Amino acid sequence: MASQQSIQYSVVVPAYRENGNIRPLVTRIFAALRRIDSPVPAEQTEIIIVDDNSRDGSVENVQSLQQEGYNVRIVVRTTERGLSSAVVRGFQESRGDNMLCMDADLQHPPEYVPTMLASLSPTHTFVLGTRYGKGVEMDKDWPMYRRIISSGARLLALPLTTASDPMSGFFGIRKESFLKAKTLNSQGFKIALDLLIKSHIPPYAIAEVPFSFGVRSEGESKLTGKVMIKYLEQLAELYWYKFSALVVFIIFFLFIAFFLLLRTWFGSLSPDAQNK
């Protein structure tokens, strides 16, 4: 197992009742990292599973993988819940300066992990796996209603960021950029979008890696009506965070314009104005 000092890359995986996916996820990630053409060394990479107290055998599964030599550990949260807060906790626990977040359900292909990690650099402080890249058939295995929801969520976020697909959840960030983010929304649905805005990532610092969604093989989908409502609430908060100064300026401008209009109107009704 790699020493703590040699770790340069951290892969954070939020999980709840994903025990059936943990072994294939970990083994496939390290198999990709150990390929001769991998741009990222396996011995410099760690995987952190952030589990919301699933009690489904995930802890024992990770212990077994550790005994087999895989650099993976699990953080079990007993007092917190939620995807975004799990990602934040994982980033806080990370030893590497280059941090990647991916789902446990294998819909984010583990074979893309080396490319995603290698895309991070001092000039590219954020990397995004995008389903809207050239040659990618977006969500080709999803039912129509899922495609509509995904496209609609992306359109609603367009005024906030130039990133093509902040909804994918497959993303990475440099630690120095992560530490700049304040007042992160731990209850939000899309932590990538929150980090893009609150870490003040400029468009030129975003690297994008096209990928096609895989198919969930174990566990249950997390897309529910409650999740969609939380996403809308998150959007409202981010719009205010980014555009609040503009909103105040517009209100102030309208107030001044209204005041000048009233002054002109009352001036036109004064005796002096009528005698001219």
Automatic annotation (TrEMBL):
Keyword Protease: no
Catalytic activity: a di-trans,poly-cis-dolichyl phosphate + GDP-alpha-D-mannose = a di-trans,poly-cis-dolichyl beta-D-mannosyl phosphate + GDP
Coiled coil: none
Matching Gene3D superfamilies: Spore Coat Polysaccharide Biosynthesis Protein SpsA, Chain A
A molecular-function term among this protein's GO annotations: metal ion binding
InterPro entries noted in UniProt: DPM1-like (IPR039528), Glyco_trans_2-like (IPR001173), Nucleotide-diphossugar_trans (IPR029044)
Subcellular location: Endomembrane system; Endoplasmic reticulum
GO cellular component, one term: endoplasmic reticulum membrane
Pathway assigned in UniProt: Protein modification; protein glycosylation
EC number: 2.4.1.83
GO biological process: dolichol-linked oligosaccharide biosynthetic process; GPI anchor biosynthetic process; protein O-linked glycosylation via mannose
Keywords from the UniProt entry: Endoplasmic reticulum, Glycosyltransferase, Magnesium, Manganese, Membrane, Metal-binding, Transferase, Transmembrane, Transmembrane helix
Needed co-factor(s): Mg(2+); Mn(2+); Ca(2+)
Pfam families in the cross-refs: Glycos_transf_2
Function: Transfers mannose from GDP-mannose to dolichol monophosphate to form dolichol phosphate mannose (Dol-P-Man) which is the mannosyl donor in pathways leading to N-glycosylation, glycosyl phosphatidylinositol membrane anchoring, and O-mannosylation of proteins.
Family, per entry: Belongs to the glycosyltransferase 2 family.
PANTHER family in alphabetical order: DOLICHOL-PHOSPHATE MANNOSYLTRANSFERASE SUBUNIT 1 (PTHR43398)
Subunit details: Component of the dolichol-phosphate mannose (DPM) synthase complex.
Protein name: Dolichol-phosphate mannosyltransferase subunit 1
